[in-house]
Amino acid sequence: MSAVLGSAAGRRLIDTAREFLPRGQLLPEDAWRRRHRTLSILLRLHVVGLFIFALIRGYGLLHSFNEAAVVGVFAVLAWWGQSHRRFSSAMCSLGLVTSSAVLVHLSGGTIEAHFHFFVMVGIMTLYQDWLPFLVAIGYVVLHHAVLGTIAPDQVYNHEAAIAQPLRWAVIHGSFVLAASVASIVAWRLNEEQSLRDALTRLPNRKLFKDRLDHAVARSQRQPGFIAVLFIDLDDFKNVNDTMGHAAGDQLLTTVAERVRACLRPGDTAARLGGDEFAVLLEDLLTPGDANRVAHRVLEGLAVSIPLRGKDVLVKASIGIALGGLDVPSEELLRNADVAMYTAKREAKGSFAVFESSMHVAVVDRLELESELHRALDQGELVVHFQPLVQLDTGRLAGVEALVRWKHPTKGLLLPGEFIDVAEQTGAIVPIGAWVLEHSCVQAQRWRQQYPGQPLSVSVNLSPRQFQQSDVVDMVRRVLERTGLDPTALTLELTEGVVMFDSEETEAQLHALKALGVQLAIDDFGTGYSSMSYLRRLPFDILKIDKLFIDGIGGGPAESAFARAIMKLARTLELETVAEGIEGANQAHELRDLQCDLGQGFYFAKALAADDIEALLGSTSAAPLSQLPASVRSPASP
Ligand code: C2E
Ligand code: MG
Ligand code: MG
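That is the input. Now the predicted structure with magnesium ion docked in place:
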């Protein structure tokens, strides 16, 4: 038998049965307690009721007491063993079906009394556990088939039944079976509702956890590997915020379908909540198989999803944890989560396999999160300014404000080390507002101090600021408070802001434009470039990412992209800024390509405000690239 069940066909049969039958034992503790209390009361009422019924039926006091006491014993056991949930449930079940048997017996085998059995068997599914249910069914079988054959007059008060007890046992058995099927279907539906995610119909966290527990237990006994994939969508919040919840729901449903389609029938895909999914892979031949599945899932998601007439691309980050000896299921899931976190931080749209060193990195990050919350209040943030230079004259045209964090123990941190965290926690909203205010105050001071060099300032805005705050109102107030000429302020937005091209973002951009500020598209060419937004949205400046500038000076093939972008910008009448210029040859070639402004270490790194002032004092005469290196790039980053 075990050989049959252990075979592939046997396991398929078990899987199919698992699919259609309720799982059992998944009732939460508090729900179980409530139900058990109710059923125990029902059982105690039976003890009293049967005693009275026996007396009414004319039995003596002692006999009546004994009949009720048999049931009473189970009532005591069900109450006494409450710390052992399954034992108590089984005792309660035994008590109630024994009540049925006693009732049948006291009523002299009246057929109508048998209905009591049907009701009790159905009621047992309230425990949503196979043990009490099978106890009830087993009892009915024993009672009808065994006792019914040995002493048919005790069971059936019916001549035909007494003459043919086996036939009657079969008829009754069929009725009980039919009643059980109805109860099991209800039980399964009930379970379905509490174990499946209502939107995607995938198993929810609870069912996933249950399957994982089983898989972990099984894997300790059998060869083969198990693995958990933790999948988290990147930038899902953007879709929800800019396209609405209905679009978000549709996206999740599509993702669920695509993840499912990447798996074998025996594997489990679940939605853990929000934009988090998990996959359980069983019977893997090699650990590398999990990587292959992760690959497939990423590929499956790489095809754009049509949402409200637009093609939206979602990426996902996946963490993989492999099961091993003595790795409990909670740890497996947590490890996969940690690996996902690492994957997301390193490169969105990728996967990572868990290693124990990742724990340390995640703890570090959580620490950073909590420290960042108070960094602003503690005055630990500072703004440095990187010069923007006119490529034809070499003169200083403006500065870009770049935030830094003077961390009490880690020293000066660059945005790359904390902006992502700030984005994810929402801390970027107050930080961004502070950077804007601080930069405008500074720029206004410089413009008044050096009227001959009317400096403009560029400030980065994060997508989160667009979604979470009234960014237009914020900018208007800052301009009013600081008195800065709006045309001297450039707001830099990455393609992340315009990614979903929603009407709301469009309206916000037009309102910003109406304030008189300049709008720049930052890191052009690295994000999602459907490019159609460039025509419709009111941008003035296009900042070409360093990625394309790096190739310049290395021959026509390497600089082809930069040339093409420059041409595009000219056609759209956008001013161009080349980011990350590091060498003289790049600066010269870009100037020949008629790029307007340049920014990069070749001219200057981001400098503290004092250093910019020194620069302002000395650049009126000399082009920036001819200044001594000590002024252009002081020691600080
Ligand atoms: P970004 O807006 O594209 O800023 C340019 C980044 O390139 C700066 O890095 C700058 O130091 C660096 N860079 C400039 N020239 C060169 C070069 O020649 N070589 C190299 N290797 N790098 C160069 P930084 O300061 O680390 O800032 C990184 C990013 O952090 C910024 O990219 C921006 O997206 C973000 N960021 C900085 N400050 C803020 C802020 O206040 N708010 C928001 N939302 N984002 C900010
Ligand atoms: Mg920028
Ligand atoms: Mg940039």
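The chain has a mean pLDDT of 88.
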